[in-house]
Structure formats: C-alpha cells, structure tokens
Amino acid sequence: MKRKPVVAGNWKMNLLAREVAAYAEALAAAGPATTVDIVLFPTPVYLDGAARAMPTWVSVGAQDVHAEEKGAYTGDVAAAQARDAGATWALAGHSERRQCHGESSAEVARKAERALAAGMTPVVCVGETIEQREQGETEAVLDDQLAPALAVLDTADAGAGAGAGAVLAYEPVWAIGTGLSASPEVAAAVHSHLRGALNAHRAGLGDAARILYGGSVGAENCRDLLSRPDIDGFLIGGASLDPASFLRIIRLSAGSGSGAAAP
Ligand code: PGA
To answer: Cβ(93)–Cβ(105) under 8 Å?
Structure first.
C-alpha cells in the first residue's frame, strides 16, 4: 500500500516573526504541493502567526504540548491552546524533549493523547542513542519507547477521517543535527521493524501508519530514503530553516511532474 508522504519541518528554537512571514511568502509563491502533506513546527509564540500566514496546503504543528489538560504549569502549552492557535499537528517525544526535559515514554504517550483529544495529529518520535545502537539495543529501546504510545496511535488511525491518521517518526539521536544521516538501508530496517510492531499491536495498523525518518535529511539524501517502501516522509530540522532548501526537499519528495511546489 502506498501512503501519502509527509514532509515536515521542525524549526526548533529558530526564526523570528519576520522570517516566518517571509517563509510563508516563499511557500505561497512556489506552491501548491498536492502529492505530499507539508507540516511546519514553529516555536509556540509563532503558532498563531504561522498558521495565519501559511498557504492552505501547509499545516502548522506544535513542537510539544503538555501532558495535562490545563493548570499551573508555568511556561508550558496545553494541547487545546496549541490547537486554538492554529496547530493541527503536534510532535510528542522529540529526543530533545526526552533529553533536555526528561520526558519518559509514558509521558510522551500522554502528550500524544492530549494532542489527539484536542483535534491534532500527534507525531510520536522514537530513536536510539549511538551507545544503544553500538550495544545492539536499538530494537529493544524503540520497542520500549513505542509501547505506551501504541494505543494512541491505534486511536489516531481509527479516527483517520478527522486527523491525518497514525504518524510515527524514527529519529536516531546520533543522526540529529550531526550531518550523519542513517543510511537508507539502516533507516529502512528500523522502519520495517517499527511497522511490524504496529501490526503486531493490531493487524493493519502498521500498514496504515506513516513512519517518518528524521536525522540530517537534506536534498542530497531525501530521494534515496523515500524510495524505500517503509519510509513515508521526513521530519527535518536544519534543512527546513531555509525555505529554498525545504522546497527542494518537497519537490524531490513529491516527484517530478506531480504538480508539486517548485523551488
Ligand atoms: P536535523 O534534525 O534534520 O537537523 O538532523 C531533525 C530533527 O530533530 O527533527
């Protein structure tokens, strides 16, 4: 089964309002992209502005939402607030959140549940460190990270009509921001494992879920990665900061002559 690719840009703690506005203009001038889903994840203060400025074919998502519905959590953003500001997607458990904020896999699953309940498509992120890979622990680590999120991914798939279905991102920690992307072979093997784990949870869940790869994706490697049957798109950090670079990846991912955005 061919799944619609997702090309997502995670801006992390980068870009100012004027740069977000210029970025939206660059996309609008180049678009639309119709054969891939495009999502951008700005910092929370710019969610509203980005959601208003982006062309309709670009979705906006939250980089994080809190695991609780609301309350006394200074500095945090509730899923309902992110949705209210225009986010229709939300990352859950990016490795920088797991590392810098000590998020457990159980908490990540609760964040994904909040995002889904608020009407957003959660993107559950998993990934191993270089030490874990070298110790041969990759699959066990990913299985542990995935386990608490299986139920919410199943629910997301069941409600696929409203949201964008079940979306998982494999982001090896050693490949993020390092320029050392996983090879297509390494990434494909992990994606196949993750799809198997989803199908083991419920037959068909793995077949329907879109599994994105993240970690030093750029114009030079996106096509090769996307040619693998189990790789359904990307979560892109550094190469998404410049609209020309992001557009190049969109165009390469969408294939030529597909009516997709030109760089
Ligand atoms: P990178 O980041 O593309 O800069 O490696 C990917 C990510 O963290 O989502």
So the answer is: yes
Tens-digit pLDDT profile for residues 105-125: 999 999 999 999 999 999 999
- Rounded to two decimals, what is the model's pTM? 0.95
Return the amino acid letter for 219. A
Dihedral sign computed on CA atoms, order 24, 171, 80, 34: positive
Which of 97, 222, 236, 242 gets mutated to test ligand 1 (max ligand atoms within 8 A of its CB)? Answer: 236
pLDDT of residue 255: 75
Question: CB within 6 Å of ligand 1 — which residues?
Answer: 10, 171, 176-177, 214-217, 235-239
Helix, strand, coil shares of the chain, percent, nearest 5, are 45, 15, 40
**Residue type at 141 in one-letter notation:** V
Active-site residue 171, yes or no? yes
Query: Contact 17/38 with Cβ under 8 angstroms?
Result: no
**Catalytic status, residue 66:** no
The number of C-alpha atoms within 13 Å of 26 and in the hemisphere containing its C-beta is 16
pLDDT tens digit string along 123-175?
A: 999 999 999 999 999 999 999 999 999 999 999 999 866 678 999 999 999 99
Domain 6-254: give its CATH architecture. Answer: Alpha-Beta Barrel (3.20)
List the catalytic residue out of 94, 96, 113, 191: 94
